[in-house]
Amino acid sequence: MTKYQIHAATVTPRALLVGHFSTAGDVEVLRQTERQLQALGMAYDVTPYTDARQSVDGSWLNRFTLDPTRYSHLIVICGPFTPAMAVQHESIFGRFKHCVHIGVNLTMVEPLASFNPFEVLLERDSDRMVRADLSFREEPSRVPVIGLCLTGYQREYGDRHRGELAEQKLRRLIESSGTAFIEMDTSVPAATNRFGLSNAAQFESICGRLDVMLTTRLHGMVLSLKNGIPTIAIDPVAGGDKVTRQAHKLGWREVFDPDQVSDEDLRAALERCLSDAGRASARLVRDRALASLEGFDEEFAAALQVQSTPGLRNELIPKLGKIAELRKRFKTWKRRRRAQNRRA
Q1: Is the dihedral of CA 309, 310, 314, 317 positive or negative?
Q2: Beta strand 100-108 with 73-81: parallel, antiparallel or unpaired?
Q3: Which of 50-64, 192-206, 208-222, 316-330 has the lowest mean pLDDT?
Q4: Cα separation of 216 and 188, whole Å?
Q5: Can you tell me the distance from the alpha carbon of 89 to that of 93, in angstroms, rounded to the nearest whole number?
Q6: Per-residue pLDDT at 1 exceeds 50
Q7: What is the C-alpha to C-alpha distance for residues 213 and 222, in angstroms, rounded to an integer?
Q8: Phi-psi category of 208—alpha, beta or left, where left has phi over 0 and alpha has psi -120 to 50?
Q9: What is the end-to-end Cα distance of the chain in Å, rounded?
Q10: Residues 194 and 159: beta-carbon distance below 8 Å
Q11: In this model, does residue 4 exceed pLDDT 60?
Q12: Which residue(s) pair with 199 in the sheet?
């Protein structure tokens, strides 16, 4: 008998729960299994196959630190299971051979007649049967859904641009709030849109299903409020610019200066936006905006009757030397942006 070939009867019952735990569904089935063991009074520990998953839960143990003699059961949870996996994860399957092996919610890739290392197999699917995935047994849970719509670098604002700082603060807000989020982009056409959206209808169809929008873009704020979605906007320009001016015109208060707003300010704003009062306030914005634009059609029609005054544009196009200088500055800016993108 080797070092770890210990009969289960000589060990105080304790289970080791192992698996990829690389999807939300995997973790749901793991939590279900944990509750079942707790109800049955059996102690257990959890270890993922790889170190990369350890950060999911601080209570999970590193497989290399485990003492195999403490365990009577090995419960393998979720995912496809093949002979190669036993070899790949020898640190588990080589060291815990003495345990009773139970497979839970597994997909058995090979026919069971040729490969089934489990004393008990409660598979999700194999060549003998198919079960519904055990995630169906978990009650659906809900958290607020947040949109995140960010502007890129805007060279027009030079040193006043604070888009990166604003983004950092909004991402910290999402992380600390525990909300779900989806990133969005207002750019068109689809080839230039980071998330494949190609028109306003697609953007607004998603936007209208959100609880709150977080944005540094003017149209991220405008299209959200147009759909009655409370919006937290950080103007990406120090001191405030078009985003701030638009929010003030709309009577929307949740707009902030990137240099001044704190994490606490943003958390309080999110709480306000998620409230019934916050959503009710957002629904009023579109009506106020439309009321303020009454008479615009007449102004536009009148504009078509105005006579041309070319002298207004005598200095619009710089002299040749000035153009060359501007082109040189633009090329320098492009090189700097490419370098920043490579570092990112």
Answers
A1: positive
A2: parallel
A3: 316-330
A4: 17
A5: 6
A6: no
A7: 10
A8: alpha
A9: 54
A10: no
A11: no
A12: none
Which domains are delineated in the chain? 8-137 (3.40.50), 145-291 (3.40.50.2000)
| Contact partners, residue 218, CB within 8 Å, separation at least 6 | 242, 243, 246
Q: How many CB atoms lie within 10 A of CB 199?
A: 12
Averaged pLDDT, 272-283 = 97
Distance, in Å, from the CA atom of 308 to the CA atom of 205, rounded to the nearest integer, reads 42
Query: In the numeric block, which tokens belong to residue 331?
Result: 């090329």
* HEC readout, 218-247: HHHHHHHHHCCCCEEEECCECCCCHHHHHH
Q: How confident is the model at residue 342 (pLDDT cuts 50, 70, 90)?
A: low
Cβ-based burial of 174 (10 A; exposed 0-12, middle 13-18, buried ≥19): middle
Q: How many residues does the chain have?
A: 344
Spatial contact of 132 and 165, defined as CB atoms under 8 Å apart: no
State the pLDDT confidence band at 26, using cuts at 50, 70 and 90. Answer: very high
329: number of Cβ within 10 Å: 11
pLDDT for residue 7 is more than 60 = no
3-state secondary structure of 107: strand
For residue 278, give the amino acid letter: G
CB 257 within 8 A of CB 238: yes
The overall longest dimension of the chain from CA atoms, in Å, is 101
Residue 64 is encoded by which pair of tokens?
């290399």
Whether residue 8 has pLDDT greater than 50: no
Give whole-number Cα distances, 170 to 39, 176, 183, in Å. 41, 10, 12
Query: How far, in Å, CA of 226 to CA of 252, rounded?
Result: 12
Structure confidence by residue, pLDDT tens digits, 94-143:
999 999 999 999 999 999 999 999 999 999 999 999 999 999 999 888 99
Which 3 state secondary structure label does DSSP give 106?
strand
Q: Rounded to whole angstroms, how far apart are CA atoms 234 and 243? A: 8
Q: What is the pTM of this model?
A: 0.76
